[in-house]
Amino acid sequence: MLLLLSVITTFLLSASCQDQEGSIADLFLSSADLETDYRSQHYAEVKQSLLATWQADTGVEKVWDKLVKRLEKRLEAVREQGSDGVPVVQFRDIINNGGKLPDNVAKKVSKKGVVIVRGVLDRKTVTGLEAELLKYLMDNDAYLDKEEDTVYEIYWSKAQMRARTHPNMVKLMKALLKLWRTEKVTDMNLSKPVMYVDRFRRRPPMSQFPLPPHIDGGAAERWTDPEYRAVYRQIFNGSLDMYDPWLVDHRDTANMNSLGHANGATFFRGFQGWLSLSSSGPGSGTLKVLPNLAEVTQYLMLRPLLPDVPADILPGVVPGKTFHLAKKWHDALTSSLVSIPSISPGDTVWWHPDLVHAVEEWNSSASVNSVLYIPAGPDCPLNREYLRRLRLSLAGRQSPPDFPSSDREKDYTGRVTIQSLDQAGLEMMGWPEDTRGAGGEQCQAP
């Protein structure tokens, strides 16, 4: 009876945040539509309100001109450094530094918003995870047929769960979350990472999978939602020098998915990230980033307020889609992304939730490029609510929150169950200590 209640509740909750079966491609506009603008009178009203509260002594255009000059120098350095400009650190150096990023690395990450951490898992462990993951696909006839379908809507394999809860991954998440800070009393524990369940990507040689420059975690909501807008309040009042991209206040109360669409975020990810199961590098369909955080964010947030933008347009915003960069509005940025350096199995990549990133269109290498998406998010009310729905999804054998509703894995062989979770899995999902009692998966998801 309890399991039945969990399943019913899961379906009811899913209706608001999960629409129908789909894929990651549903988040993005086609290349032909990237320059299309969406118009809304609501956007015009929001922009008018923001301009009315502008507090700087100089107007928006003068502040913008000053920002552009500073940003041009930053972007020139980004293009000159290329892949070498992406910060890199060894996992052992973090452990030897008391579980913190070395100061010189932390300083670079704070400015650039991205870091590669090498050697998080050893090759033997990674080889085992990949073998188990491929067996999961084989046993359940889950291989994708089309070469361009490289992102698997698979979430509940035991290999993925082991990677999410591996002690080294948890230690690294704690180290990364220490870069965030707060200025107010908040019910958030930045030293306690919790679980976010995501899919994985497997790109065969010579496969095409274009993801244009974008930012995840909401689009119009950055301007229209009062709490999300408060994250960028220093930008919107003209005090650009006061803006701190690592101030966590208001991010845990922001509504990132006001439309409730599938693939929309309802979890605060302090870092997006992935674990590499293969060797890859520039040209192999890898990640591209724009390693500048503060100035690029200021540019994107102020761009809609300039007089050359029609009043009813938020450049790069289309309802139900991720926030994307359009050449006609963000040309200074679109040409400045760089591919991350070469990656080995067991290496990880992490980036700030406001960092502009993309994916190389082609895997031009002769090897498979395979990664598990694993972000880092802290214990906070928003994420606890996500965990409640995540537990319901596991008990109800459904896809997790924030993704298209599906029971694809419902009867898969080797699927994660409550009973199969280890202590780390139970804790990171917020299950009570006595969950794995005699009732096992018959227990209700609290």
Please work out how many helical segments DSSP would assign: 15
Please give the radius of gyration in angstroms: 21 Å
* Secondary-structure element order, N to C: HHHEHHEHEHHEEEHHHEEHEHEEEEEHH
User: Strand share of the residues?
Assistant: 5-15%
Q: Order of strands across the biggest sheet?
A: 1-2-11-7-13-5-3
Helix content: 25-40%
Would you give an account of this structure?
The protein is of the alpha+beta class and 446 residues long. 35% of the residues lie in helices and 12% in strands. The chain is built from 15 helices and 14 strands. The N terminus and C terminus are likely disordered. Helix 1 packs across helix 14 and helix 6 packs antiparallel against helix 7. The longest helix has 22 residues. It has a seven-stranded mixed beta sheet. The chain has a five-stranded antiparallel beta sheet with strand order 9-6-12-8-10, with no helix packed on it. Strands 4-14 form a two-stranded antiparallel ribbon.
What's the gist of this structure?
35% of the residues lie in helices and 12% in strands. It is α+β, with helices and mostly antiparallel strands.
For the structure shown, list the relevant keywords:
446 residues, alpha+beta, 7-stranded mixed sheet, 14 strands, 35% helix, disordered N terminus
How do the strands and helices of this protein lay out in sequence?
Blueprint: H1 2-17, H2 41-52, H3 60-81, E1 88-90, H4 91-95, H5 103-112, E2 114-118, H6 123-139, E3 151-152, H7 158-165, H8 167-177, E4 189-194, E5 200-203, E6 211-215, H9 221-224, H10 226-231, H11 233-236, E7 272-276, E8 287-289, H12 294-302, E9 323-324, H13 327-334, E10 338-339, E11 348-351, E12 357-359, E13 369-373, E14 377-379, H14 381-395, H15 423-429
Parallel strand pairs: 1-2
Antiparallel strand pairs: 2-11, 3-5, 4-14, 5-13, 6-9, 6-12, 7-11, 7-13, 8-10, 8-12
Helix pairs in contact: 1-14, 3-12, 6-7
